[in-house]
Amino acid sequence: MEALNALFVTPFVEIFDAPWFFMEVLTGGLMAGVMYSLVALGFVLIFKASGVFNFAQGVMVLFAALNFVGLMDAGVPMILAGIITIAIMVAVAFAIERFVLRPLVNQEHIILFMATIGVAYFLEGVGEMIWGTDVRPLNVGIPDDVFFVGDAMIQQSDLFAAVVAGFLVVVLALFFHYTRTGRALRAVADDHQAALSIGIPLNHIWVIVWSVAGFVALVTGIMWGSKLGVQFSLSVIALKALPVLILGGFTSIPGAIVGGLIIGAGEKVAEVYWGGFFGGAIEEWFAYILALAFLFFRPQGLFGEKIIERV
Amino acid sequence: MKFGKLGLLAASAAMTVVSTAALAAEQYIPSLVYRTGPYASGGVPLADGYADYFHLINERDGGVNGVKFKVEECETGYKTDRGVECYDRTKENATIYNPWSTGITYALIDKVTADKIPFLSMGYGRTSAADGRVFEYIFNFPSTYWNQATAIVQYIANELGGTDQLKGKRIGYIYLDHPYGKEPIPTMDILAEKFGFTYDKYPVAPKSMTEQKSIWLQIRKTKPDYVIMWGWGAMNATAVKEATNIRFDMSKFIGNWWSAGEDTAIPSGDKAKGYRAATFHGVGKDAPVFGDLQQHIVDKGMASGDGSKIGLVLYNRGFANAAYVVEAVRKAQEKFGNRVMTGEEVRWGLENLDLTEERLAELGLTGLVPPTKVTCENHEGLSPAIKIQEWNGSGYEVITDWIPAMTQVTRPLIEQDAAAYAAEKGITPRSCN
Predict the structure, then answer these.
(1) ipTM for the complex shown
(2) B256 to chain A, minimum CA–CA distance in Å?
């Protein structure tokens, strides 16, 4: 009886007793979700265009941020550091296409996935060799104060992240839907061989999509790096994107955003109001439970493409 | 320059496992390190400090009574399986191990005991290994997690005006949801009951180290009088950042000694001013030994890194750890002769270590290494204590004298846990009389 009370009564009483606090938890969760979405976006881009689950996405975030902050620490102005880092990420995209993907065209997806594991180790090692392992504080002028809506405290940096993520999504969605390159990207995602047969240059498309993912990784790295400092543990934030991808679908950019918001808000509310009952630290597995619950009704994810196999 | 040094590092890592037969004339020190991976920012200064002290002894003194130290690193990545693999590959002729990981420590307790190689988990690992009657080869001086918890509570009591002032206070305990983070919970339970304070537990899942918003929202709501943190890696910096975000009074936020590195506070910079953490060794590079280090190692280009980490908290910890090992070897030589010591002989040296203030002054270690006396029965040392250091925006300053742990509370728990371990493993505790 006590357990039922703790599960089904107490949390709701607490919510009604302190609605502003609930608003704060919910807002904080949504903002955290935006940060997860930024990571998930990089995965979605590459999966959408090449059907590859890019294990290296987290390390790409780290690598981009390391180059950016390293250049800034070396005295390079911020804008120039950003441009040079984007150039580096494009060069990385070229190298990955030439030395990893091209030799594996039309191989099983699991083989491409394994190759990206190798890419992850390589980038991590190179980043460490060039820039070392120290934690580097990153300040790009993102507002870092708080303001209050009623009694609920909101972080300006969270709001800024939300605006950046929203802008990225709009740009990417327009790019995929309304440009020739974007349509070509989607064609390649559907079928490598078929895309090749109608004259879509597969190699160029892969370079473009990995470059765009590199750019998204840089933006993500700057947002997370401003928060935590640029450090090697940034690579593990990729893990936070997995439930978002499961929920939102691996091929949908809006799915990455909506998935992130649902996971972020869901796990924070669950942790604060139900965490105590389970002994705390439930958000790690609760995110997956939430994602699986959605999969029960939408196996392809909330916005994923329905796969129809003809017999 | 960087490539050159790292190239050498890579080459030395590749050559980690060499035949140790050729090292018979040197005291062989395998060093299990993590210079790569998510925890490298902590692992690198620890490894650098550890190696540099041995190099200093070799260069300045020609070793201990003519016996030089040969340090070889094996990369664990802070992973338990790789740590065990490193141990198996380097154990021949090994003098002592200290893997800088509680997980690796737990995995190796039985192995090192069987191989008769001493193991110094300085400020980490299994607390009850302090009972030397059961854990013959495991040492954890100069203090343990349980005693650290009591000393931190004692510090809070001192701030409040006495232990009686703890009654009715509310403390938040934020910890890595891992055996390391859970280790002091039984002690905290006892202290809470003994002194009448309440404490709320906030576990942080390892994969959520970088996202603690829900925890700090709860802390903002419950408004604890103090928050104690038992963190590691990115969890520390995230917690400090979130604490500044909710405008928590940083002088009431106290990390343990693994939440005491510069990387904990650097990302928050000035906003983290006032953040406090425990330490069991000195900070900075005021100790006289650092002058010798500059002259004999750094100026000759022999430092493990570029010299920039000297004086950092974790560098000093590695340095202090090596100092203990050197003195244990020296002590063992007093009994067994001036030659390379075996693992068993070094264990004797550790069990008879008595580093007084006078001896530390002779070694130039005053203020860096605490006086320590170890016995057969007590592998934690007889006077576990901490100091509290405070972040000033760019570095730490020690703000207290030694705060003794409440050993009268913890020693019975240690003996009880060690007895349970002995019963489980079929060990008959040895007599230390």
Answers:
(1) 0.85
(2) 19
